[in-house]
Amino acid sequence: MPASFDGYQRLQTGNLLMCLFDYDVTPRCIGLIKDNGITSPAYSQFIVDKGNHTDYYYYYYLMIDHSKALLHMAKNLRHSFTEEQLGMIHTPVPPVEEQQRIASFLDTKCAEIDALTADIQKEIETLQEYRKSVITEAVTKGLDPNVEMKDSGVEWIGEIPKHWGICKIKYNLHRAESRNPGNVQVLSLYRDYGVIPKDSRDDNHNITSEDTTKYKYVQVGNFVINKMKAWQGSVAVSEHEGIVSPAYYVYQFDNDNLNKRYFHYLIRSCYKDEFRRLSGGIREGQWDLPSEALDNTFIVIPSEKEQTLIINFLDTKCSEIDSIIVDKQNQLETLAEYRKSLIYEYVTGKKEVPTA
To answer: Which residues touch 240 (CB under 8 Å, ≥6 apart)?
Structure first.
């Protein structure tokens, strides 16, 4: 937030607000103002001339924004263009009564699609919470609901099966400090995906340094943790060989009695709140987890046989849940594409609004 709001512009309900810079990376460059307020002077506010309908032109420019059709005009470093350039672009001008019918029709249809989208998103969130609860129950309580329990001695873990062990991470893993050996891929750590090759997904935040000589070497089966985002779930056992940012911790397993897959499920499902509690100080906007705090964190360890049973159970159960989530996400993508096509067809006159 700025020290002063001097120079900020007032927003007027019913106007259009546009972002005419960083056009290539800004997810949404057009908005219909629904509340009075103020905003950065960097944005451009437009009043639709009398004799035209604001909502129609909101949908029209939204249609253009979906495809980034104006990108060819933004040729400078910030991919920006001027209000004058925007004003020179020809636009369709249906009769105002037709503009209003189109906007009203799209308001109704988009509201229906948005409601369906919200319902499906809630279903996905419910499935994700269910997945998390299944994992947490299995890795901290086991698969036998009738087993005798004992107090773990760790308040947030609570009771665990009586025959399970509990000990600190440092007695099972140790820090690995091997540097970049060369000729290996760059890896990154994501909350949703674990450790994966960096080039396998678009990433505007984790920038690879030109000099990777100080990057840390990761072998398959190493435990990798982003110490500044551990509280968000950026921890995982790697299935890939490569190098990671020197800001990450890399650990090797010492205890053969601790199954790496079990540990992966355990650490990713149960420890976000604990890592948040242990993290302190703010570094570049992130909480920093000290290595000593991580080393002295307690984990529960079932017998090797039980670990294998838990892994097999969770692999099957999570696969079933993930399959349903993927189907739901595909539904969201279909609805989003349908919404875009609907707007395109009606604001360009490809289809006429049905009459009652």
So the answer is: 185, 187, 195, 196, 197, 218, 220
What is the C-alpha separation between 275 and 180, in angstroms, rounded? 28
Coarse DSSP helix, strand, coil percentages of the chain, rounded to the nearest 5 percent: 40, 20, 40
Closest to 264 measured CA to CA, from 322, 223, 295: 223
The reported pTM is 0.84
Q: What is the pLDDT of residue 283?
A: 52
Q: Would you say residue 115 has pLDDT above 50?
A: yes
Extract the runs of DSSP E, i.e. beta strands, from the chain: 9-11, 16-18, 30-32, 37-39, 44-46, 149-151, 159-161, 165-168, 173-175, 187-190, 194-197, 216-218, 223-226, 235-237, 242-244, 248-253, 280-283, 286-288, 298-301
Report long-range pairs for 29-34 (Cβ below 8 Å, ≥24 apart): 29/65, 30/58, 30/61, 30/62, 30/64, 30/65, 31/58, 32/58
pLDDT greater than 50 at residue 230: yes
- Which of helix, strand or coil describes residue 16? strand
Confidence (pLDDT) at 213: 87
The DSSP element (H or E) to which 43 belongs, if any, is none
Contact 217, 181 (CB under 8 A): yes
Radius of gyration of the chain (CA): 27
**pLDDT value of position 281:** 65
Hey, is 126 helix, strand or coil?
helix
Say how far apart CA 258 and CA 156 lie, in whole Å. 21
At residue 250, the 3 state secondary structure works out as strand
Question: pLDDT per residue over 168-188, tens digit each?
Answer: 999 999 999 888 888 889 999
220-224, 279-283, 295-299: segment of lowest average pLDDT: 279-283
